[in-house]
């Protein structure tokens, strides 16, 4: 990591997954290092029952030994969402993805870091039902012992 590289810490608590991920992808492509904290507290908008049914259908695609691999941990789900917004078939997208770190909760080394929240991605603007990424992960089979 060079001295010019900037590290941005994003607190995902209360942010909409897709809008936050697109902002994070832009930061990564501009050369910044991004660390996302509280991944399990990010928000999906929509009814819980329909989101869980959609996730179960998605999990049926592929084979466990060959892929595509579907993660059930909230931090990995969020990282894969950001990956989908990067040009990962090009070298700049692969390099950008290596600059991303995603954590559940806030590890001790990041306790005192100043975090940002994207105002346009905040869930307080939602008028309908929503659920957190942690709730969705539990519904599709994530056991917290992993």
What is the CATH architecture descriptor?
Alpha-Beta Complex
Number of helices: 5
Write down the Rg.
Answer: 15 Å
Strand order of the largest sheet: 1-2-4
DSSP strand content:
5-15%
Largest sheet: 3 strands, parallel
The CATH topology name reads Ribosomal Protein L13p, Chain: A
| Total domains | 1
- Overall geometry: globular
The count of strands amounts to: 5
Along the chain, the helix and strand elements come as EHEEHHHEEH
End-to-end Cα distance? 30 Å
Residue ranges: pLDDT <50 for 5 or more in a row?
none
Q: CATH H-level name... which superfamily? A: Ribosomal protein L13
Mean pLDDT: 92
Helix percent band: 25-40%
Q: Structural class of the secondary elements?
A: alpha/beta
CATH class: Alpha Beta
Structure description:
The strands form 2 sheets. The protein has a 3-stranded parallel β-sheet. Strands 3-5 form a two-stranded antiparallel ribbon. The protein has one domain: Ribosomal protein L13 (Ribosomal Protein L13p, Chain: A, Alpha-Beta Complex). The protein has 5 helices and 5 strands. Helix 1 (17-29) packs across helix 3. It has helices spanning 17-29, 48-59, 74-83, 91-98, 133-139; strands at 7-11, 33-37, 43-45, 100-102, 130-132. It has 146 residues and is of the alpha/beta class. The protein is 34% helix and 13% strand.
């Amino acid at each position: 990591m060079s001295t010019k590289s900037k590290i941005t810490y994003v607190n995902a608590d209360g942010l909409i997954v897709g809008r936050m991920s697109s902002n994070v992808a832009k930061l990564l492509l501009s050369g910044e290092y991004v660390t996302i904290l509280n991944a399990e507290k990010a928000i999906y908008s929509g009814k819980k029952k329909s989101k869980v049914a959609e996730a179960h259908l998605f999990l049926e695609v592929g084979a466990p030994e060959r892929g595509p691999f579907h993660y059930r941990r909230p931090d990995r789900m969020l990282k894969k969402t950001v990956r989908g917004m990067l040009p990962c078939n090009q070298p700049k997208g692969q390099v950008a993805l290596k600059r991303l770190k995603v954590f559940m909760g806030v590890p001790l080394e990041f306790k005192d870091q100043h975090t940002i929240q994207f105002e346009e991605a905040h869930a307080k603007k939602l008028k309908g039902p929503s659920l957190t990424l942690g709730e969705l992960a539990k519904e599709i089979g994530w056991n917290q012992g992993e």
